[in-house]
Amino acid sequence: MSTDQTHLTDFVQIRHAQKAFGQLEVLKDISLNVARGQIVAIIGPSGSGKSTLLRAINDLDPLTGGEIWLDGTQVNKSLPHRQYEKHINQMRQEIGMVFQHFNLFPHMTARENVTMAPKMLKGLSNEAADALAEEQLQKVGMLERIDYYPSQLSGGQKQRVAIARALAMKPKLMLFDEATSALDPELVDEVNQVMKKLAEEQMTMIIVTHEMDFAAAVCDRVLFMDQGVVVEEGPPEVIFKRPEKERTRAFLRKHLENAP
Amino acid sequence: MGLDFTIIPGYLDIILLGCLWTIAITAAAALLSFFGGILFAVMALYAPAVIRWPFKVIEFVFMGTPLLLQLFLIYFGLVQIGIDLPAFVAGVIGLGLHFAVYNSELIQTAILSVDKGQMEAARTLGLSRGQALRKVVVPQAVRAVIPPIGNNMIALLKDSALVSVIGVSELTLSAQRAIGATYRPFEFYLLAAAFYYVINLGMEWVQRRIERRISLSR
Ligand SMILES: Nc1ncnc2c1ncn2[C@@H]1O[C@H](COP(=O)(O)OP(=O)(O)O)[C@@H](O)[C@H]1O
Ligand SMILES: [Mg+2]
């Protein structure tokens, strides 16, 4: 029972994460545990280090101190260069990431965007890959556009394909970095709906967002970050309704309609 | 002695054969320059120094010296060290490498201007850097420079006349041979020019088709 509990809370662990770009300390000793199936929102002003933290989790921005663990394996463990490359490529297959600007591959159709990595890294046959593309694009409501190029899709549609692309690797963890910030307001909801669906399917997610309503509705926990530290964290009811820290309240006054 | 185009039909067969050789050598050299250009570009940007330096030397030689000299070197020079290439092969290698270097310059710039989010997205899925370059970055870079590469290929067609000096019976040399037999330079050089123009039109047509095919995927 107790071991089960530990295992659950151990699913994603960020231990004393530190990151500096030269002299600039962007992450100052951040620790965070996420249980399997949990959904954590990270909010905070621009430049507070939210993207850097997400990008550290899959080692796009390697930490300068601290450890990242996923499901019992250290992501950023120290290994000789070649071994590390193999290790990190393996780990990244298990960590899906969705970017603010989609970063779809423009020279590939939606289908090819989704199947490229599974074919290449998991040796899927053409038939299996097509079935996978249909399954994943169906899930994000993009099946009718399966053979469209990104240039033929709206922003919301691109982002949904990008989510399908990440899901196709069957990740254990999904990272969203302001997935709806670049979208026209009327296209935000279709992407939020997809993320809600993932939440219902118990996908473990860490979501950097500016949308407080969405965070309140979907997330189990909210972290408020400022200047490279976690100022305050807790369930959305607490963070949004009765935050303890003045910095949190000041931030929320700017971003919430009826702030505490 | 006025112009007399009625003598052309008697030599049309060798001129047409010359056209075929011109098309063949242009096509082969264009392919070599395209794939060689990609290879050179990737080497120039990413290969370790030991591999990069020989490529730099090739690049320097092929950009900094006349194509004519390069053809002489490959065809006549290499014989001395025991490499006796047929004229056609020497011509393809000379033209192909020469233009590969120019294509490589274009492709290098294009690779560097592919949005870095593309590499990141590919790495995030678990691709290695090499895999991401091959599947994601390089294909986009090449698409971006298809029009200027097309211009290089037109230049290649025109420069293919130079391989006449090493004895490839392409269009220019065929015209010269017809002139040798008839003493009618004006007629046959004009005819050759007309055929170059037609081949040129054909190449532009191919280029437009390629551009249309990739227009959605950019
Ligand atoms: N590659 C980088 N090099 C130097 N500084 C960076 C780099 N990436 C981010 N930063 C800096 O780190 C800080 C945090 O950035 P970021 O994590 O993007 O913040 P957020 O996502 O919360 O807006 C900012 O001051 C930013 O300028
Ligand atoms: Mg950010």
Structural summary, described in words:
The complex is a heterodimer of chains A (260) and B (218). Chain A is an alpha/beta fold and 260 residues long. Chain A has a domain at 12-104 and 171-257: P-loop containing nucleotide triphosphate hydrolases (Rossmann fold, 3-Layer(aba) Sandwich). Chain A is 42% helix and 23% strand. In chain A, strands 6-7-8-3-9-10 form a six-stranded mixed beta sheet, with helices on both faces. A four-stranded antiparallel beta sheet of chain A has the order 2-1-4-5, covered by helices on one side. The termini of chain A are far apart. The model of chain A is unreliable at 1-5 (pLDDT under 50). Helices cover 81% and strands 0% of the residues of chain B. The A-B interface holds A 58, 60, 85, 89-90, 92-93, 95-97, 99, 101, 103-108, 116-117, 120-121, 149, 151-152, 162, 165-166, 169 and B 115, 117-118, 120-128, 131, 135-136, 139-140, 143, 214, 216-218. The complex binds adenosine-5'-diphosphate and magnesium ion. Adenosine-5'-diphosphate binds at residues 21, 24, 26, 44, 46-52 of chain A.
Structural class of chain B comes to mainly alpha
Q: In the residues of chain B, how many domains can be counted?
A: 1
Helix share of residues of chain B? over 70%
Helix content of chain A: 40-55%
Give me the count of strands of chain B.
0
Number of contiguous helices of chain A: 10
State the CATH architecture of chain B: Orthogonal Bundle
Biggest interface, which chains?
Answer: A-B, 29 and 22 residues
Main sheet summary of chain A: 6 strands, mixed
Ranges of chain B where pLDDT stays below 50 over 5 or more residues in a row are none
Number of helices of chain B: 9
In CATH, the topology of the domain at 12-104 and 171-257 in chain A is named Rossmann fold
Shape category of chain B? flat
As an assembly, this protein is heterodimer
Order of helices and strands of chain B: HHHHHHHHH
Question: What is the beta-strand fraction of chain B?
Answer: under 5%
End-to-end CA span of chain B: 57 Å
Bound molecules: adenosine-5'-diphosphate, magnesium ion
Domain ABC transmembrane type-1 (chain B): 19-207
Transmembrane segments (chain B): 20-45, 57-79, 85-102, 186-206
Membrane topology (chain B): Multi-pass membrane protein
Keywords (chain B): Amino-acid transport, Cell membrane, Membrane, Transmembrane, Transmembrane helix, Transport
